[in-house]
Amino acid sequence: MIYKINSLLYVLILIYIHILNVCEGTISFHHHQNGKQ
Length: 37
Prior knowledge:
Blueprint: H1 2-36
């Protein structure tokens, strides 16, 4: 039971970090696009 909860938390944390990275990448990409114009 505890193992299942831990693995679920681990997956949630990985997804959360991935979403944060994608958001940062998108924001920096938009900054680069604006800088070119």
